[in-house]
Amino acid sequence: MDSSAAHGVFGQVSMGYVVVESERLGDWRRFLKQGLGLHLESESPSELAFRIDAHCRRFVVKRGPAEDVVAVGWQVHREGTLAEILSRLQARGIAVEDGDEALAATRGVRALKRLKGPKGLTLELFTDALTSDAPLRMLSRGFVTGDGGMGHIALTTRLPTKVCRFWQEIFDARLSDRISQPMSGTMLDVSFLRLNERHHSVAVAATRGLRVDPIRTQIQHVNMQVADRADLSAAYARCRDLGYEIAHEIGQHPNDLELSFYVTTPSGFEIELGWDALCVDEAAWTPAWYDAISLWGHRPQKVSPLRQLLLNLGNAGRGLRHAFRPEYSPIP
Fold first, then answer.
1. How far apart are CA 182 and CA 69, in angstroms?
2. Which of 3.10.180.10, 3.30.428.10, 3.40.30.10, 3.30.300.20 is the CATH number of 146-323?
3. pTM score
4. What is the predicted pLDDT for the residue at 210?
5. Which secondary structure element, helix H or strand E, spans residue 158, and what is its range?
6. What is the DSSP string of 239-279?
7. Which end of the chain is more exposed for a tag (fewer CB within 10 A), N or C?
8. Over the chain, what is the mean pLDDT?
9. Helical H runs in the chain?
10. Are the beta carbons of 56 and 292 closer than 8 angstroms?
11. Going by DSSP bridges, is the β-strand pair 221-226/270-275 parallel, antiparallel, or unpaired?
12. What is the CATH class of 4-126?
């Protein structure tokens, strides 16, 4: 066991993989392979697995009714750091279980630990990923991964303080910045938390005042980054041509300066595909507060008045239902 725990957890954890449960495997295959340009590593009647780099499995879609992200894997880069994380979880009474060999194989890792995170989302911790040196067969020429991991997740919550505390107390997450913006008649506050050099690995969004959660899914969006700007525009054009709803057209964020677009997945949550997000210089970084989510662009796709009305009514109904439904938090 190494001594990394003495130096804290920050910088030793990155997003490793995403697991989606869906009955729409054919549509997911088309979406990820033909739309976003990922490498299809393996497929069966019950599961799809995709690569974007040497890791054998970065994006897994398994057959099931959830139509949602059901697990997010986090790679812990040292055994000593994993021991420290497990100690912190135990001290807070957060149960952790071992995943068996069969489960680890479906995730593309040698072994894993599982716990119930904020909003009840399953979080999985691993140190060693299974890798492959076989050539990638992708429409995109490359994705940004490395020490920063495969991307980030964004979630909406009625308990933003507790959600942020979880990531800060367990993973030493640091606040990169905040954004506040009016949205659908309310003020939305978003906190951006980094676990490593990536500007953020977790974004936590909440309505100000009355806490409602209008999002059906556990995750509002998953982010991945292409290495080449041309691949961003090409994926955008492919997704439009294939008929996938562009939730937000290409634009640029003010905080991480990433160029990106958001596309609605076959299960209803969004994927943000981006390019050229900055890495944080820890020696010079100061958290800031912005009053808009975008410097330019990111306009919603034009829809008919009837479609817009139905979307607004649906969001309002989901928000009201969530306002009276308890939300799970592992942090009291």
1. 27
2. 3.10.180.10
3. 0.94
4. 86
5. none
6. HHHTT--EEEEEEE-SSS--EEEEEE-TTSSEEEEEE-PPB
7. C
8. 92
9. 25-29, 79-91, 101-107, 160-171, 229-241, 305-323
10. no
11. parallel
12. alpha beta
Q: How far is CA 204 from the centre of its chain?
A: 11
Closest C-alpha among 180, 182, 201 to residue 192 = 201
Q: Is the pLDDT of residue 305 over 60?
A: no
29-79 pLDDT tens trace:
999 999 999 999 999 999 999 999 999 999 999 999 999 999 999 999 999
Residue 238 has pLDDT above 50, yes or no: yes
Give per-residue pLDDT as tens, 92-151: 999 999 999 999 999 999 999 999 999 999 999 999 999 999 999 999 999 999 999 999
> Where do you find CATH 3.10.180.10 in the chain?
4-126, 146-323
Kindly tell me if the per-residue pLDDT of 4 is higher than 60. no
Beta 288-290 vs 296-297: how paired, if at all? unpaired
Structural tokens at position 212: 């409602």
CA distance 263 to 273: 8
Q: Is the alpha carbon torsion for 42, 230, 275, 301 positive or negative?
A: negative
How far apart, in Å, do the first and last CA atoms of the chain sit? Answer: 31
